[in-house]
Amino acid sequence: MPSNKFVHIDGIRTHYLDEGEGRPVLLLHSGEFGACAELSWEYTIPALAKHYRVIAPDWLGYGETDKVYDFGGGQARMMAHMRRFMEIMELEESDVVGNSMGGGLFSRHMATSPDTYRIRSLVLIGAGGFYPDNEHRRTMLNYDCTIEGMKGVLRALFSDPRWSEDPVYVQRRFEASTRPGAWEAIAAARFKNPTVPVREFFGRPDETPYHNITVPTLIVAGDDDKLRLPGWEQELAQQFRDVEVMLVSNTGHCPHIERPDVFNEGLLKFLAGLDNQSRRKVA
Length: 283
Prior knowledge:
alpha/beta, eight-stranded mixed β-sheet, 38% helix
């Protein structure tokens, strides 16, 4: 089992999972209500930790990290906190794997400030590019801290209905979403000053300059992702310089959870290819 650890990042008590030895791989979880490192990466960490040191933090406001939301900085504050985590934990040259919000937020900041990051590679799972505003997204945004509400979130996230119909799994997700301050920290992003025009993130064109990202990148997509448009991964891949695409069948927004065997095999193959390149350069 991964070790539960805490570190103070500029006064913020930050929780992370730490397992394995060797080259570091940083796992960044998604942003739905109840999201956290444990639930996002429970099927990924054991496979990766056989070959690498795996670090999976809880984002600011999520999981067991302090429930803080910056009304002035928003997601920029979240990313600043994660950058400091990477600096303090000496993860600046790691491989970074991000699902949904985790990958999208990291890739946008990396693309706009490419000289700030020295990571070796980037893996985006259901992340990056245009995010449509549809009924499934609205179900996730309107989560009301009920069991039925959580079932709706899981129906939007996954292709296979077994996840939303498994009472044990639903309860785990529900409990994570109702920790003290958990709902408030995520819902705070929708609290707007009446004098400020509303600018929804979802449904707006993505103008991120992904071509500025030069590190090897793997884009992972589920073929039944209800939160994305069909073919989004191919459209996004055209904007990167060094990119591979992995389409996982019979999965939704989280292939690493629905089909961990397929995802882990593809991820390990991608990372092994980078390891071999590094060894050839040294030789």
